[in-house]
UniProtKB/TrEMBL annotation:
Membrane-traversing stretches: 16-39
Swiss-Prot/TrEMBL keywords: Membrane, Transmembrane, Transmembrane helix
Organism: Actinotalea fermentans
Domain DUF6916: start-end pairs: 52-126
Protein name: DUF6916 domain-containing protein
InterPro entries for this protein: DUF6916, TAT_signal
């Protein structure tokens, strides 16, 4: 059996590949030591999980506005369920309705928030993944 040597693409050496890999590992290590979060995880859009976060602060990634989760309520007078609930936030500043990424130390939460009172700082997200009417 005759083996033919594998040729590397022009301009790419073994040393360059090893150096690049070491560079990536170095960036990850520095990020970990410095406490920089390189990858954010998503919070589950689950009423039972989020109910345990009432009173905690989130930060809108687009504006830097701080929001406090004021309540997690069931829809139509029902108890909170994993797939059917509403979130009520109080923002530090006025925020218009929009799809927002809310950062929390435990992960990011992607929700559509809209004002629900005359005060544009009071925002609500309604989640109903059961397929029924709200």
């Amino acid at each position: 059996m005759i083996e033919s040597p594998v040729e590397a693409p022009a301009g790419v050496s073994r040393r360059a590949v090893l150096a690049a890999g070491a560079g990536v590992a170095g960036v990850v290590a520095v990020g970990v030591v410095a406490g920089v979060q390189l990858v954010t995880r998503a919070l589950p859009l689950d009423g039972l999980v989020l109910a345990g976060m009432v009173g905690q602060t989130f930060v809108d990634t687009a504006t830097g506005t701080h929001l406090t989760l004021e309540s997690v309520d069931g829809l139509a007078g029902e108890t909170v369920a994993a797939e059917r609930f509403s979130l009520l936030f109080l923002a530090a500043d006025d925020l218009p309705e929009a799809i927002r990424t809310l950062r929390h130390p435990d992960g990011d939460l992607l929700v559509y928030l809209g004002p629900v009172t005359a005060d544009p700082r009071v925002l609500e997200a309604v989640v109903n993944r059961t397929g029924g009417a709200a």
